## 1
Amino acid sequence: DGGITQSPKYLFRKEGQNVTLSCEQNLNHDAMYWYRQDPGQGLRLIYYSQIVNDFQKGDIAEGYSVSREKKESFPLTVTSAQKNPTAFYLCASSVYNEQFFGPGTRLTVL
Amino acid sequence: GENVEQHPSTLSVQEGDSAVIKCTYSDSASNYFPWYKQELGKGPQLIIDIRSNVGEKKDQRIAVTLNKTAKHFSLHITETQPEDSAVYFCAASRAGNQFYFGTGTSLTVIP
């Protein structure tokens, strides 16, 4: 998992609550990404950021928000507007095209 | 945008046999093609990659081939071992921007 940490590993929340997933990297990578993974499916891009204070929506950004105030950190907030938030969330960072992933956070909304 | 298709979705092989997973992509501007291995409950790990200026790359039992004309690339694992059992993802990227992933192949190596 390199120098990318995600916390917590497991997260439980009640429906209607916002929740923030942490992603920190010490690889000095400029670009960072958030993906969602559902059982038996590939990775779908939620948001990505190529530089501090800038980020772009991915394919499934609705119901999610991000910030990139520091190079090392790219937190993801899952809002109550996300209709089906239960999933495995993966953070990644990249340099020179090579992308490295964190260990993931499994979010379950009850 | 880019569309990456991956086949097969599941693959079972006997220990010692070879496994081949194939991916196609649609954007001719894509120039970087990584392969990831994901074990249950963990994040994907980069196992090998290839850039568009190379046709083949090998790392011990793992090799990747790229056919730019046909827009497809393949992962080859030789002498498979039980610890090779995992889900494998291919991806395509252009100039370090978005990465587009295949839907994954669940590989089972039968001892």
## 2
Amino acid sequence: QVQLVQSGAEVKKPGASVKVSCKTSGYTFSNYYMHWVRQAPGQGPEWLGIINPRAGTTKSAQKFQGRVSLTRDTSTTTVYMELYNLRSDDTAVYFCARGDSSGFGLFDYWGQGTLVTVSS
Amino acid sequence: EIVLTQSPGTLSLSPGERATLSCWASQILSSNYLAWYQQKPGQAPRLLIQGASRRATGIPDRFSGSGSGTDFSLTISRLEPEDVAVYYCQQYGNSPFTFGPGTKVDIK
């Protein structure tokens, strides 16, 4: 069965960076795009970006450009999201979510979420 | 960026009643690339509906979606206690992929 297992909760200070991992299993890793979505407390989900696991190419939402890096390790079928220069309003639960094979943003499987808290 | 608006903000109904949730897009969604997700507290969103009206795998038939262009709706035909959740619409055809603010469904 498809599984996306994320790394544990993080507490960071403003200005620091955080790297969240998402270990995938149960499907052909290179056949499906992977997305990152975050959800601040009491808010709706917000899309951060997408990675093509086969080519390693990425695209991020404009508000995160220059501040987010999406990477993958095909040997371990794991994707990573690193967010730099953290601010207090980056406090949120971060999810990886599997997309389709075409790059559209329809998410059929989700990780369990990783709480990132930014506080001085 | 496509902006999605949802109403009502909260819906309180009795078990067995019909729930109708609305979602409007700021521009026409190509090929009706509109999805609905259900999110329960402490959980990730769960895909219910894609392509505006196609139920995802394993979703009960009391959930149905309709609409086209800019106006969409999700109907729960007979509300059950386990349907208490926040429901989000999402457009997935144009990057950035955006979500609505959600409708919270409660049981009276």
